Amino acid sequence: MTVEQITHHFLAHRNVTNELINKIEAGHYEYKPAPTSMSAFDLSTHILTSFYAFASVVKSGDLSPLGQKADFSGKSLSDLAAEYTQKTVDVLRSLSEDDLNKAIDTTAAFGRKLPGSQLLQMAIDHEIHHKGNLYVYVREMGHTDLPLFVQFG
Amino acid sequence: MTVEQITHHFLAHRNVTNELINKIEAGHYEYKPAPTSMSAFDLSTHILTSFYAFASVVKSGDLSPLGQKADFSGKSLSDLAAEYTQKTVDVLRSLSEDDLNKAIDTTAAFGRKLPGSQLLQMAIDHEIHHKGNLYVYVREMGHTDLPLFVQFG
Predict the structure, then answer these.
(1) Which of A35, A53, B123, B150 could anchor a disulfide with B54, C-beta 3.0 to 4.6 Å?
(2) How far is CA B115 from the centre of its chain?
(3) Per-residue confidence band for A111, with pLDDT thresholds at 50, 70 and 90
(4) Which of A44, A119, A133, A140 should one mutate to test binding to chain B, selecting the residue with the greatest count of B CBs within 10 A?
(5) pTM of the model
(6) Å from A38 to nearest chain B CA?
(7) CA A139 to chain centroid
C-alpha cells in the first residue's frame, strides 16, 4: 500500500463520516441511544481525533500524540470535521515509505509492536466501526436519506 | 496480502460479530432502532450472507453468487453465525493468488471491474460497518459489557 492508496481509502470513508456529522444539529449533540453510549458529540469527536492521533503516531514513531488534549470550545461539529479531516490528510500525505514500514513500539496501547501501515489499517477499521455506530444515531434522529457506507471511485 | 492475512483480518472482526450476535435473544430478532432500520435478524443475516457471497464471487470470478437465496427457516442466529463463518473461511482458504489478482467484472454491482483482493477489502469494510450498527442495537437491548471492535493477536 502506498500513502496515496491509504489516503484514498481513508477519504472514501471520512467523506461519508462527515456527511453524517453534518446532519447532526446542535440540539442533538448530547443525544445518546442508550444510557451507556457515547453522546453524538463525543462519538463524532472521538472519530475525528482518533484518526488524527493514529496518523500522528505513525509520523512521530512513538505514542506521544495519543496524550494530546484537544480544545473543542466554541466550534461546531461541522467545523471540527472539516478541520480534523484536513489536518489528517496533511499528516498522511507527509508520510514516507519508511514511516509505513518501520515498527512502532505501540506496546503500551496495543500490547505489541506494529508497523506504521498496520496501525493505519487499524485506524481505518476504527473509523468504519464508529461511523457504523453513527449511522444508527443519525437514523434515530429522524434522517432516512443516508449515504452508502463508502464512496466508490 | 496473502489469503492467510485476509482470513486473519476477516476473523479478527467476524469473531466479534458472532459475539454480538450470540447476545441477541429470539425475543429481540425483530428489534429495530428506528422504523426504517433493518431488524436485528435481518442485519445479522445480511452481515453473514454478504461476506460469504463476496468470497464466493472472488472464487467463481463472476457475480452469480450474489443472486443465491438463503433459507434460514428453523435456525437460530447463533446457528447461522457458526454455519456462515465456517463456510466463508472454507471459501477464503481455497482462494489462489491468481483469484486475488484477477480482475472480476463487477460492473453490474459496483460500476467497474475490481481485482479479487479489493473486493475482499470491501467485504471486510462492509462487515465492520454493519457490526458497528449492531453494537448500538445490542447496547439498546440492555447489554453493556461489549467486546472491543476487533480482536488483536
Answers:
(1) B123
(2) 19
(3) confident
(4) A133
(5) 0.97
(6) 10
(7) 20
